[in-house]
Specification:
The complex is a heterodimer of chains A (163) and B (240).
Chain A (H helix, E strand, L loop, with lengths): L8 H133 L6 H15 L1
Chain B lengths: L11 E3 L2 E2 L2 E2 L2 E2 H20 L9 H20 L8 H18 L11 H23 L17 H43 L5 H37 L3
Antiparallel strand pairs in B: 1-4, 2-3
Helix pairs in contact in B: 1-3, 2-3, 3-6, 4-5, 4-6, 5-6
Classes of the chains: A mainly alpha (163), B mainly alpha (240).
Amino acid sequence: MPQLDFSIFPSQFFWLCISFFVMLFIMGKFIVPLTAEMINLRKAKIDADLAAAAELKQKVEKTLEKYNEALSNASEEANASVLKTKEELNALMERREAELAAEIGRQILAAEKKIEKARQKALSEVDGIAAKLAPIVWKKLDFDKFPSAELQAVVKATGELKK
Amino acid sequence: MSSPMEQFVVKPIIPIKVGGIDISFTNSALFMVLAVATSTLLLAWCLRRRSLVPNLAQSVPETIYEFVASLLRENVGAEGLKYFPFIFSMFLFVAFGNLLGLLPYAFTFTSHLTAVGSLSLIALAFNIIIGIKKKKIGWLRTFLPKGIPLALAPLIVPIEMISFLSKPFSLTVRLVANMTVGHIMLKIIAGFVAALGVLGFVPILFNSCIVCFEIFIALLQAFIYTVLSCIYLGDALHEH
């Protein structure tokens, strides 16, 4: 079998080494880098695109979070403001009510004073009126002599009794 | 009728002698050079226009690239990608050697023990070099795995050495035997074509089928040669 002829080994070995190492050189220097370049570029592009997508997603999530936060803040603020206004209104109403009550009280007091005064006045005038009226009534009843001094004493006693 | 062995005879084309050693440029050497030329030119042609979205031609080298890369990743690991050009070249060299040999009048250098043996020797030398580079003196552990009692060393070391050296040998014989048998079969059946006269179309049809099968075998054997080289490379790099 020519396959087992070892006399050709030096020639075979020599030319195989040359061709294989030439091939290794061409493959290693040109073919493999050229092929790998595109594969790696593609991979890098895909990875970059995926990373960009992930980043965008994160951004969107962050924005959404911010939006929700803003929304809840705003509603909180609104609630607080509503509450504050309510309190203010309540306070105002209470103040007005108190003022009103005070005014009414004052007026009542003034009116009572006036009434009291009028009553005092009326009472003080009652004596005079009674004294004036008594002789007239006496005369009308046709009693003879008007005991003005006695009557006056009676009126006075009555007035004192009333007090 | 010529002998079916005649196709395997190595004939010098340009006789060269250096210091008494015959290194003539033979038909075998011619086909080695052709294998290199066709594989590199074909791939270069495929890569002439490259784009991010691969076109049909570009996908050929890329498919081979991914194939060899996954082979290395599985058998050697990520660090094996450093030796990518070596395995890539080896696969293409053997594959094109096998395929070119199937052409009529072609010479199949992968059917020669001396040729494939030389390639396996290169692979062996490569394994030893990167093994020593990686593990330094610890590379000698290849012949005496950890956990083996020293008393067993006289027995284990020769066995391990034989196993280490038989790897390239088995690689070589597997490829050579496959290529040789395929070609002998093609030649013998082709011999029947003339002998059978009118009925000669039967062996022609049969041979056509065998050629298709041989193309498959050519690629399969190149693949097996490469896978085993990867496994041996993995052995050289890792503890076992």
